[in-house]
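Handoff note, outgoing to incoming analyst
You'll be picking up this chain. Sequence as last confirmed:
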Amino acid sequence: MAIVGLRPQPVSDPEPQSPENLRGLVQDRLAETAPSSDGLLALAAREALLGPGKRVRPVVAMLAAAHVGGRAEDALDFGCAVEMAHAASLVLDDLPCMDDAALRRGQPTLHRRHGEDAAVLAAVALLNQSTRLILQSRAPSEARLGALDDLTQAIGFDGLAEGQMRDLRDDPVQRDVVALRRINDLKTGALFVAAARGGGRMGGGDADDLARLAAFGEAVGFAFQLCDDLMDACSTSEALGKDVGQDQGVTTFVDLWGEGRVRAGVRQSLARAAEAVGHDSPLTTYVLHLFRQAQLGR
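Most recent structure output, in case you need it:
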């Protein structure tokens, strides 16, 4: 399903720091850092972390490091840490006490395969491992601690946890545009901001660089959430590899704005992202390519 009317660009052979190659580096590093011990906890954590995925957030982190003049590889471990946090958040979101999802990335959700106890503990272990991976990286201590602060802020009271709580407990009838945007910024945008800003730290970016990267991450996060709302309303489980119709009975931007205005909102958010880091930045090229693709499953 086409989401935004963006002009296709020619695809050339992958460059050393192309998103395709960066994704390969992420895949390899995640496999190295995944728990290798025997037992159900390690198995569940590996499945949650290494299942099919676009690895968007770690690629954004690596491109952000290169964007400010560093090497993409400078943010590899940080990007993998962000992916661990993202994988853990999906496991928790899918639980019966939250979204009660049956499918994730084309497979039965983790709690349906291994039980709720294993799913919860695997998520906790992955969150713990994400912080260890950053602390053990070779980056300068100031960059390490700053990136760790970015990620932990995105997970807790100013990020994923608070956003999910509001999404579960706020009265959907009273949700206006401001309240819903706040939920979206917490649930989705915060982790994109952390990926972009933390990647910039790892690449040696200054305060102005980090501010622009944060604006980029916020805009991209909102575009992703708008697309997620559209997909939930308009696509199928077979196409997305996850449950649809999860937003029934919950107010989304599709309800508030209608499908046409949501699609326009995606285009406007992508334009803001491009303005933040430059229209010629590989960061901009990467996210525009993602939004041209037919499927944008999380």
